[in-house]
Amino acid sequence: MPHDRTGPESAYASTADELLVLRTSPPKERADAARNRATVLIAAADLFRRHGVDGLSMDAVAAAAGVGKGTLFRRFGDKAGLAAALLDEEERVLQEAILFGKAPLGPVGDPAPRERLHAFVDAYLDYLLAHLPLVRMSETASPGARYRIGAYRFWHRHVALILAGRADPDADAHSLLATLGAEHVQAVVGELGQARVRRAASDLVDALVSG
Question: Are 20 and 100 contacting, i.e. CB atoms less than 8 angstroms apart?
Fold first, then answer.
């Protein structure tokens, strides 16, 4: 039986244009600046893979990319800013699938709210677990850093729109996303394992969306 087209899903469709504004966009820069940025990010990704987050220095990235350390700090700020830049492309892929992809993650096929929220949590955990050290660094660089990241505002709005039928969807969206924070997931995955973390997140989705 088709789900109710006048319920939360239609509320999502009527306001989803907000997500177009919030999605991660490539930086607008000159062609030479874009090439230099790409060179830095390729070098940084390679060094992150080989040395991990804690073993990486901005000096090493600058040397590997052939740019001055001052240039690197002006472009990215610090290691957390560099981590956020490395994650941008992965975030864009997930955001594009949410905005334009097939059900249940995307709108094509008109998924029910619970199916769509389950798909988001599964896809987000795939992304998070594949890049956990980088996401954790970008989210914990300073107090409250996670909530100032543009991608977080996108994830939050997406979840809140799915939960539009609840009494306080904004608060509920923050509560669900709290369980997907990199600091939290890194701490509990070591104790519980990925399968139990995923199951707990799935159970929370079921508790939030009944239909």
Answer: no
